[in-house]
Amino acid sequence: MEYCVTTKNNDSWYIGTNDFDLFKADKTEAIMFQGNGYLGIRATAEERNLNERRDMFVAGTFDAFNDEVTELPNLPDLLNMEIVINQRAFSLSTGLIENYHKHLNLKNGELVRSFDWLIDGNRISFKFSRFVSMSDVHLFVSKLEITSDQSDLSIKLNSGIDGQYSNSGTQHLVEGDKRLFDGKILQMQEKTQQTNIGFAFNVTQKAYIDEVLLKVKPNIRMDRRQIFDEYNVDLTKGEKFTFVKYANVYTTIDNDVGHDTISDISMDAIKRSSLLNYDELLNKSTNAWNINVWQRSLISIDSDDVKPQVAINFARYQLAANTPKDSRMNIGAKGLTGEGYKGHTFWDTEIYMLPYFTFTMPEMARNLLKYRYLGLDGARKKAKANGYWGAQFPWESAWSTDGEMTPPWGSVDIVTGKPMRILSGSLEQHITSDVVIAVMQYLSITKDERFAEEMGYEIILDAAKFWASRLEWDPARKKFVIDNVIGPDEYKEHIDNSAFTNYTAFWCIQKAIAVVGLLRNSNPEIYNELNLRLKLDDAYQDWISKVDLIFLPKPNEFDVIPEDDTYLQKKIIETTQYQSDGGHAKIFKDYNLQQINDLQVTKQADVLLLVFLFEDLFSDDIKLANWNYYEPKTTHDSSLSFSTHSILASDLNLADKAYDYFERACEVDLGTGVGKSAQGLHMASIGGIWNMIVEGFGGIRVLDGQLRIEPHLPSKWNSLHFEINWHGSLLKIDVYKDTFQVSVLGDAITFINHNEIYHVAANSKIEIPISIEVNVED
Asked: Considering the domain 6-296 in this protein, what is its CATH number?
């Protein structure tokens, strides 16, 4: 694996760089992002530079501009520091820079940048340190240290709150009050233009020389959307100047504050925080990371190469830093790491990120699924508007109750020169099945009956109502079909009978039928309640009459499942030149979307995702035949594609392919490609790193409610160790070259390995030899 950051063989929590490159800044800004699920800040420098994206977001604070769809507003800059030394404005683009080093500690989220600035014959040493607190989600703390062993320094420092930022030119915030409190606390209040969400930003700052607090009175400067402190300090040669900045953000939608109190509450909070020094607050945050994240998601790789361990540490760090704990919000496709996709949530959460949380932090998975439950009314409105019943979940969603948020127009058509219409919001309907898949996986792993009764069953039943109403009768086939959709392969629009869509719709209706039977027999009170609201008696009869007549594309004489009605009749082209690294659609340089629609070219795993998610429906021969057919035709223009290919390759014992796709997935964000992550990280691909290791190489799978463990340890690894939750017990899985062990902390569990059933008693361990399989790679 080749990363754009440096790693250390003896420290898998370290990512860094010794090079300052303005043209790569936007990528490292995203990779070294800092956040806690509530607040997120890109790793821009404290001083301003060219090509930077000074983005800061608070989860859930969506706002719209005119007729555009809502997006997360870019908030005022709390990071800023304007530094003048001996009448020379500090900038990395002037003078000379030596000993440059910037690194992120993934263990606690601290970002450190240090270097020597050579200007006018002076060597001045700088060190910037900062963190977003995991123990106090509103808090951000930064520290600057300046020394010179060569000469005295006259330092002027401006630092405060700068609200002169926007979302690529769109201004979402209206300025409110700004003032100085108690002679030392800067506060700026703003609110969003349409959604009227209020913000309070607070900053208080301290200056030291050689650890002695300066009693200087700063000069306050106010301008439009700005409020700054100005410090003037004379530093003698050999002394150290230290500047600590405490900042926080509160909003009127926070669960822990009242609507009219954020000014006072946030100011009281910054006062309390500033009673502690930088290291004390960092220690509190570090402890929160350990308790809330690292002790909950153990995963360790023994390998001569540290990079796989770095990748999984990076993945878990980013998932924790970008996932809100508030169920009214969800994980954006780019998290909080950039403006890409406007902060919106897709199927990425359910299919690619939820497995991590469901297996390791089920309470977080419950929150993310509750978000979909809170969105049922919006999903029902979308279904009704389209002429259907039940709940049709939005392809893009923002605030839980807002409904569909897919923008109508996308990038420019290479042939016509006009913007391309985005049809996903209306045609990519498999999102409704994806939500049900995640709900069923959560229930299978956790046995959370309370969630099922309060939310899960209703999601499943309303999704089935949508699919039953979506079916159309085809008299020629004498089957119910689903026409005019987009499947996971977004290069095929207006297709009929997407295999993925039809199979998952069939499966959803089957699950709803099973839920009705279960509730009628075991919980008639809840059934009667749901029946009253959802008219289940009528829906059940509708499902029974249709489910066995749904058209399911069958494998042809070569065992290939048609991706849709016409895919196998389209023209075949050589796709090698168009295969990407998970985000660069090279094929659009030669074809527009309408032309690609007529080619056997697939954007990402589609049929292969189907046979992975529903592997018990297909034989190994069918899986292999579809791998051999579709894998060469897939361009991987979506970063979601690699993880599915890697896991499926592990299942098929294509060990080299599995590891190659694993490395390519790790390189989507960590790799050397410049620009791929400029708009933010690829959160689904990041979730896929955990999936590839645990579900692929670790062999963990849930099949029809049962746990299967069949490891496929990569030849480059000596061992793999991870923990998962299963039915309330903690399982520690240790995979070696020839054997694997399952240790149980809690109640007894049962799992399947190569069709054999194994029982592990409570608080005990079992060791099983790893079967030697035939490698079917050419």
From this structure: 2.70.98.40
